[in-house]
Every structure is written in C-alpha cells, then in structure tokens.
Amino acid sequence: AVLPASVHKAYIVGYDDGEFKPEGNMTRAEAAAIFARNIADIKGERVTSAKTSFTDVDTKLWYAKYIGYLEKYDLIEGYTDGTFKPEEHITRAEFVTMCTRFYSFIGKLTEAKSNKFTDVANTHWAYSYINSATAMNWLEGYADGTFRPDNNITRAEVVAIVNRVTDRKADSEYIKSNRSALIDFTDVKDASYWAYRDIIEAANEHQAVHNNSVEKWVK
After folding, report:
1. Do residues 88 and 146 touch, judged by C-beta distance below 8 A?
2. 3 state DSSP class of 50
3. Integer angstrom CA distances of residue 127 from 123, 206, 209
4. Which of 59, 68, 166, 180 is a good FRET partner for 119, with 20 to 30 A between their CA atoms?
5. Which of 206, 217, 215, 198 minimizes the C-alpha distance to 20?
C-alpha cells in the first residue's frame, strides 16, 4: 500500500540578499510568524487579522497579523506592561516556551522529567517549559551540560527545534539529487553544516510520506 503524502509548507524565508543568516538571531515577531504559519496550515486557515491588544505592535507592519493570530488562540503572552517587544531578539527560553504552547495546541505533551541542564534553576520562569521540551526530545543543550536559556536563539537552532516539534525530517537523498531545483541560500551551501538539512526542510514546500521515523519527499 502507498502511504498518504502530506504537504509540508515552507515556514521560513531568507533575506533580500539571498542569505539565511543561520547564526543570526531572530526577533520575537519573526518567531511569531513561524508559529502562526504552522497553525494556519494545520487549521486550513489564512492569517489575516491584525487585531492585537499589545500596545507596541503597529498594525500596519508585516508582523501584526501573525501576532494577532497567535493572540487569538492564546498562544503568546506579552510583558506585564502590555507590550510584546516584537523587534527584540527572542531568547532560547522564550522560544522553547512558544514551542510548548504551540504543541499543546496540536498534541499532548509528555510529562516533564526533572531538569538535566546545569544552568536552569527551578526558579527560572521557563523551568517547566524547558523540562517539557526536553522530555519531548526537542532540545539538545551544549556539550558542557548547559542550556543557556537567556541567550538569544539562532535562526539555525530555531528551524532545528521547529522541525522536531512538527515531526519534519529532511530527505537527504532527495535533496542531494534535486539541489538545483530547491530553494537554498547563498550562505547555506555546505551540506555538512549541522543545520543544513533542517534549513532546506523549512524553506521548501514538499510532499512528504512518513514511514515509521523516516520521511521521504515525493515532490
């Protein structure tokens, strides 16, 4: 029997200069756009509403509709002063929190295990979110046993985690055979770069067939 294919839509884009800037940081607005695109895809909706209660989100800017869309589903929180700070860089802890909220919207989180990172105290505001994400096998810390929750997350780290959260895995053979037809970036050409496949997965819409833990691209 042929397994049904599902469409994996692209959820990231590069910059006007053709780069992806994998080691660059991501703003809170850019992160909101990723989750809004994924939820709209799952629900078969279009992201349109720019209505938001955050005092610092200009409804005329590109990201307002994504922030408003997530707010409609209670998937994001701002700061106690009523702001969202869309242009500020998102930290690793903030991003993981968005991941767990997003996932609880589409599936059931594994019960959180005890913390494995040496630098995440049980008093840290994101302690339970980081534990849940670790229990779901979304996170890898650093070789020294730390997670560095308050560091800014890189764009490469973002796509690696989102692909795990959404159960997306790149098809290496397909990518190797069809490189010229795929969207790629001038600064992500090295197939041995740790996040290369994750970035290609996230940037290219494709039909995917899942067989156990293997994803095959069919288009």
Report:
1. no
2. coil
3. 7, 35, 35
4. 166
5. 198
Q: Which residue, 189, 103, 198, is CA-closest to 154?
A: 198
Question: According to the model, what pLDDT value does residue 58 have?
Answer: 95
pLDDT < 70 stretches in the chain: 1-4, 219
Retrieve residue 72's tokens: 């409609």
- The two three-digit tokens of residue 141, written as one number: 């810390």
Between vectors from CA 16 to CA 15 and to CA 18, what angle results, nearest 5°?
Answer: 70
Q: What is the pLDDT of residue 1?
A: 43
Distances (CA, A) of 104 to 56, 61, 96, 180, 192: 27, 28, 12, 37, 33
Q: What is the pLDDT of residue 106?
A: 85
What is the pTM assigned to this prediction? 0.91
Name beta bridge partners: 185: 188
